[in-house]
Every structure is written in structure tokens, then in C-alpha cells.
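Side project, low priority. Logging it here so it doesn't get lost.
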Amino acid sequence: MVAILSNLILGFPWTVGFMLGFVLAAVSPAVIIPCLMSLSSRGYGVAKGIPTLVIAACSADDVVAISGFGIFLGLTFSKGAPLWKLILHGPIEVIIGVSFGVFWGLLAQWIPNKGHRHVAFFRWLVLLGGGLIALFGAHLIHYDGAGGLATIIMAFVAGMQWRKEGWGDHNPVTKTFKRMWIILEPVIFALIGTEIQVDKINMNTLGLSIVVLLIALLVRMVGTYFAVCGGELTRKEKIFMAFAWLPKATVQAALGPIFLDNVIKQTPEQWEVLGNKEEWTNMGNDILTLAVLSILITAPIGAVCILGFGPKLLSSDNPEEQSEEEKDVESKH
């Protein structure tokens, strides 16, 4: 939907439109998971597994979004390449990303073995090193999309293998990465802030960009409602699901500046193939602006909707919460 709207309204090429669509499609676990954990601790939606479903969908959604973004980013800047190379670029990125991710995830289980005295430190080091190798290595071989995909896959595989050994979700490696994230999360948002140049924002397209974002969000919410119609959820629970997949933040902060960064790095020889540099720079600024707007609009509204609508739309298996709900109903009557 974003690809179609950005092509018709903003005049973006189709590959850039699809790339923007994948940037805006991803939801933010950093916003959603704490809100759902708060509801889950009070028993809301636990009986039907709604918090688990939303969190699992967040992870899958981010994998697809990052992979799709990398594929269309590669296609966008590969103009002039042979047709067969353009066709195979996406599948090759997926194969490289999945293969390396699975291999390194299994490696993170065996190096070192579970009985090692410093097992937590070395597993953290292996996983961190693997992510850095994937990201920088993929860039060196010009398959950038494979790096992000490999990083997510390796963490997923390593987590599954560690669970088989008895480690839960709150294992020492996860705790270390959470401590790192306390420092790195503000850094990501600070970096995206430095990329934005207010004087270069095209006010003529700013309003159109907001229209594209709002229409895409509305379509996403309607699509989410109908996507969960096949289960045993009530109408209220389906409405909650539509709001639960609304917040966007971290993925947009990470992916938003990449297109503009690639535009800046292009050589004069490459511009002979790509075309007008100023036009591409304007597209990069528009994409960055849209990414920032999606964060500013959806992150606070989404968090408020999840925490506010959760107790109203979901049922709780916690006796204390149930009694409070009954009191609220009685007071209304």
C-alpha cells in the first residue's frame, strides 16, 4: 500500500516505494513488549495467548521488513546491472542471510560448551561478533540486506538452542544485551536526529507524506483486524490486536537514514547511471522525514492505546482485576 501511495502521490520509483513500505511496515518491540508485559502481569489476554501472539508477530514482522528493505535497497542502487543479476539479487541475499544466521546461531551454542566457567560472557561475545561480521561482511560483498537478516536469524537460532539446554528467556546473555540497549537505544535516535536537516525538508511534500503515512496506518489496522478473524478471538480482542501492531520506533530509526546515506556515498560514475543526484537526495530526505514522523505519531499513540484499551477490550484471568472490572460496570449502572 505504501509503495502504491508513494508512487502515485509522492512520485517515487517503484523500487524506492517498496523499500519505504518495508521501512514503515515494521513495528517496534521496544514499545510493544513492555506494554504487553504490563497487561500480561495483570492477566489480560493471557488465557488466549494474545500477548505471546503479538510479540511473536512483532519478531516475524521485523524479519520480513528488514529483509525486504535490504532487497529493494540493493535493487534500487543496482541500476545498469545485468537483468539476471537484478532478478537473483533478492533470493541470494535471503539465502546468504539465512545460511550464515543458522550456522552462527548453532555455533553460539557450542562455543563455549555449557559447562564452561565463563559461558555467559563467551556466548555474548560470539553472538555480538557474529552480528558485526554479518553486517559489515554483507556490506563488503554488496548484499547489505543479508546482514540484518543473518543477525536476527542467528539470535533466534541461538535462543532456541539455549532453551533446549535449560536457559529461559531471562538468560545472562539476554540481560547483557538489555544493559547495552539502555545505552545504544538513545544513540540510535540521536543519530537519526542529526541526519534531519529541517531547512531541507520539502514543505510541499510534507503534507502529502503525512497523508501517505495515515492512509497506510489505517489500511494496516483494517488488515490486521481481518487477519486475526480466523481464530477464536472476540470482536473486542480483534480491535485490540489492530491497535497493538501500531507503534513504530526502533526499526524506523535504524533504517530511516540508510537510503540517504547510500545516496551520499554514490560516485560520479554511478550517478551517470542513476540520474539526477538532487532528485535522489530529496527522496532520501522525504524517506527520513517519513520515518521520523512514523515514530513521533505512532509510538506514543500506540503505547497509550495498548495500555488504555487493554483493560477495556481484553478479559483478565486475575481475580483482583476481574473484581475491579465488575466494580467499574456496577458504578456505570
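Brief comment: The CA atoms of residues 5 and 212 lie 6 Å apart.
Revisit when time allows.
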